[in-house]
Amino acid sequence: MTPATHSPLFPQVPESADAVLDGLDPEQREVALALHGPVCVLAGAGTGKTRAITHRIAYGVRAGILQPASVLAVTFTNRAAGEMRGRLRQLGAGGVQARTFHSAALRQLQYFWPKAVGGELPRLLDRKVQLVAEAAARCRVRLDRNELRDVTSEIEWAKVTQTVPADYPAVVAKSVRDAPRDPAEIGQIYAMYEQLKRDRSVIDFEDVLLLTVGILQDRHDIADQIRSQYHHFVVDEYQDVSPLQQRLLDLWLGDRDNLCVVGDASQTIYSFTGATPEHLLNFRTRHPNATVVKLIRDYRSTPQVVHLANGLLSQARGRAAEHRLELVSQRDPGPEPVYTEYADEPAEAEGTARRIRDLIAAGVPAGEIAVLYRINAQSEVYEQALADAGVPYQLRGAERFFERQEVREAGIALRGAARAGANDSLLDDAEDLPAQVRAVLSTKGWTTEPPAGSGAARDRWESLAALVRLAEDFARAKPGATLSDLVAELDERAAAQHAPTVQGVTLASLHSAKGLEWDAVFLVGLTEGMMPITYAKTDEQVEEERRLLYVGVTRARLHLSLSWALSRSPGGRPSRRPSRFLKGLRPGSGSLGASRGAGVGGIERGAGGSGGAGESRRRRQRGPVRCRVCGATLTEAGEMKLMRCEDCPSDMDEGLYERLREWRAEQAQELGQPAYCVFTDKTLMAIAERVPAADGELAGISGVGARKMVRFGAAVLAICAGREPGGDDEEV
Description:
The protein contains 29 helices and 19 strands. The chain has about 725 residues and is of the alpha/beta class.
């Protein structure tokens, strides 16, 4: 399978419903075909979850099973929703609603408000923090800038957990939550804030969900109208839903169960916003007949990166850790992760910038490199170091691409040139579409060479250069495309927030990096007090910090660097210690120990189990897997499949191995799937080493599951016995 990240920028729309399924691995295909009833997809990082669910929707639409207008797919960011809409459009499933929870609720609220309440919907508040500041002043509570931000976040948390002002102090005490101020004071400010909103007839972001829930609860006719439109629901990043979002989802569903949820409890990193993985972990309890599919084939990262990610989670504790997924890399081996200790923070930033410059010189595009840190305040020293090294960069979390002034101006210019056509003298010497775009954008500041240094001029040039590259890719994918066609493509991308890549090293916090990936990732500032952050006191808070680092590790495809500084400033006392999460992972920090058992890939159909902690405890505990040659503990997935260390001598039957490979190639061609979907190379090697003579011996080899035994077992045993597969004495 080719990962979605590296697919063509403008792929051809599949010719048929069956063609939509091409290239999916067995588990992804199972997701795509599970179109009825409750479905839970447990998807590890880099396993192609977006690919699986968009192909599921597209297959249902193209096969005539789902009506586009009856499907509502919800996720958590405008970028993710835009990406989903873009992929659905490329698969020939336009018309499907893919939105954030808030966007979907706001549309419904705007439409039904006149009928349910009367008049116009109150104005949406632009800046909540200003009204919180006024509420605090009226309560005679002085808040500094940081406290104001924290109290505003606390009010948001209270609302998404459906906590009213009067109950806030008691709820905080019960939840052992660290409030930024005295809970009674925050409760007063919260109550005054709500009063000010009512007085001024405004609502905030959380009210959009609360009011939609209220209308659907009180007005059954409106709830029925929405349910008559939407029959099928898909929820991405389900581990991040808040109690309020879950309540809204329940109201959308009613008594139906056509719901597909996708998530990974090991990537729950937003509990401070009210997100909880409990809904994902309890899905089988609420829906005993659910189909559960586990995606563990990691197409993003090399075995070296995946091994580090698995090792990081093997030390985790808590309920989410009990349901962790053990990833198995599908990529060729790459470089080992690099661990670097620096004397101070400026030295760490300068060393990182030097390594980035070396990577760029070696051919890694700047846009495929990221520097990730725990808090935004850490970015400044890296901005300076990259600027000093002459390396372009972009800050994640800046304004959206299509909202940038230079991009809007470029769009207007391209639209005008498209309308003018041959009458525009700018296009006289432009022979093709990319040349036309370069000619038009040269009037807006684009040049063949970027401006020196960094800053606003360089940022503007990078935006225009991204449009030029997009035009070049568009022309290659669609020969004969006109400037008008490109303008239409830009309009669709703007509507979907599907931005082209800007060529600059990304600087981002670990939280904002969720859902993204790069060829090279630098995880910096990994010291105690920063990772985990100093205010992570409880066990669950520390475990969330571990999951945050796991998210950072799994953003890397090939190159991964982890670093820390012993002091903040040059000459400072070297009192800092590397993050506890690196113990057992970085060289010289002790043994990691055996894995404590993890999830495996596959499909479960309506077993009626709870999927909870009790079920996990009842499972048979697995001991460490040991090499059958030297007895050493095996940790790599490929070594465990062979039951020996990679370096230990092999007694493989080379002739048998080649016959198995030839047979596998024929099977893969007949099935129209990649060869590894039949058996991986490591599984074939294990078969050729052990030469099984009976079903039990073959079934005991890792990688030969029950389904493959039924489908391929007789043929494999025939080959091992020296017979032709498919002979008269073979039972298929």
